[in-house]
Specification:
By secondary structure, the protein is α/β, with parallel strands linked by helices. It is built from 16 helices and twelve strands. The longest helix is centred in the middle third of the chain and has 31 residues.
Length: about 400
């Protein structure tokens, strides 16, 4: 019996549901950071050209340096075809172009303070690294050296985090000598300081649920998910080789091991972007390398712990972003705040089952059209029909 008990207790220990590190909301933003002249603004300008129509997102104001980028999702495209819908609205990812960073930003050098305030306001980071040489595009730090650039930005963010944590810690440490209840909080700050002083990102630490709650009060810069976008020359991208890629991979493994790395060429993307249909397909076939723009958008969305759920009918097929682990009433609240308050139930189809069976009627006939209550956790790709009593009949929403 003992062996089984150990196995059982291990199993029971697994489901501790930790809060997520970061803001809990569904309108999350990615910020593009990098030193000047690395391809950051060129990437932002390209993303701006994909921009989603503003009238579909009436409650979101957009700043001049922000783009609302439609999320590529083949499931949404398939639903639009199947429902032959009049209106099709994708999920969108908000991307902010953050002014170029310079060494010393944490102490207010250059646009340092504005840079750090802007980066505090986003939820995830696209870190653009230059790994191409070009006589016409000067590098502000002299020769091209991606590792030096990575170190500069990582150091600035870490130094700012250290300053933030120490400012929080010191007054609480003074109280802790008289108030033992404060000691646990001081211990969390000391743990974070140790991680930062070891040249690691806060997000690389392992935290308890209580520690995450404290971390989420201060939203440190290095606790935000990062995606490293390595901008290489068109020639290197086509031959899929670049001398700096290996050291960059090693650097990311050491400093931010859970981060994704996407090598791309802004020059290649700028050539591909205007092409459509057969012309685009022929160009990609001839060059034997894909565009990475969709992957860049998708990876940013995934890094924010977001999923897509859908509402589908003849009038409209729409994708909605939702943080992983949220319930049906919270999904209803994405559609309209009254729907969360007045939620009755959700009728749910799984995308894979609808695709396999071909129609809503076939899903119902197979007994796979399910009714779910308030505790149902919405899955990625779920198609929801929310029933509520917020006045008027429930819509295909």
């Amino acid at each position: 019996g003992k062996v089984r008990n150990i196995a059982m207790s291990k199993k029971q220990a697994v489901p501790e549901k930790k809060p997520v590190l970061g803001r809990v909301k569904n309108h999350l933003k990615m910020g593009i950071v990098g030193l000047p002249n690395v391809g950051k603004s060129s990437l932002f300008n390209l993303l701006t050209k994909t921009e989603a129509k503003a009238e579909n997102y009436p409650f979101c104001t957009i700043e001049p340096n922000t783009a609302r980028v439609p999320l590529p999702d083949a499931r949404w495209e398939w639903l639009c075809k199947v429902y032959a819908t009049k209106s099709a609205v994708p999920s969108a990812l908000e991307v902010v172009d953050i002014a170029g960073l310079v060494p010393g930003a944490h102490a207010g050098e250059g646009l340092g303070n504005a840079f750090l305030a802007n980066i505090s306001a986003v939820d995830g980071i696209y870190h653009v690294v230059r790994a191409f040489e070009d006589k016409d595009v000067t590098h502000t730090e002299g020769e091209v050296s991606p590792i030096r650039d990575l170190d500069i930005i990582a150091n600035e963010l870490r130094l700012k985090d250290l300053e933030t944590v120490k400012k929080r810690r010191d007054p609480i440490a003074r109280q802790a000598s008289a108030d033992p209840t404060k000691r646990a909080e001081v211990a969390v700050y000391d743990k974070i300081i140790d991680i930062l002083q070891a040249n690691k990102d806060v997000k690389s630490g392992d935290y308890t649920a209580k520690e995450i709650i404290i971390l989420n009060e201060i939203l440190l810069l290095t606790s935000k998910p990062a995606t490293y976008l390595v901008n290489i020359s068109e020639r290197d991208y086509k031959r899929q080789a670049n001398k700096w890629l290996k050291p960059i991979f090693q650097w990311v493994q050491e400093h931010s091991p859970e981060s994704k790395i996407i090598p791309f060429s802004i020059k290649y993307e700028e050539t591909v972007f205007p092409l459509t249909g057969d012309e685009r397909a022929a160009f990609l076939e001839e060059n034997k390398v894909p565009s990475q723009l969709d992957k860049i958008i998708r990876t940013g969305f995934d890094s924010l712990n977001l999923i897509n759920f859908f509402t589908a009918g003849e009038k409209e097929v729409r994708a909605w972003p939702l943080q992983r682990g949220q319930t049906a009433p919270q999904a209803a609240g994405q559609i309209h705040s009254d729907f969360e308050r007045c939620f009755i139930k959700a009728e749910v189809m799984k995308y894979e089952e609808l695709k396999e069976l071909g129609s809503e009627a076939a899903v119902k006939a197979a007994g796979k059209y399910r009714t779910q209550g308030k505790t149902y956790e919405v899955g990625d790709g779920d198609i929801l029909l929310i029933k509520h009593n917020a006045g008027g009949a429930p819509t295909k929403k």
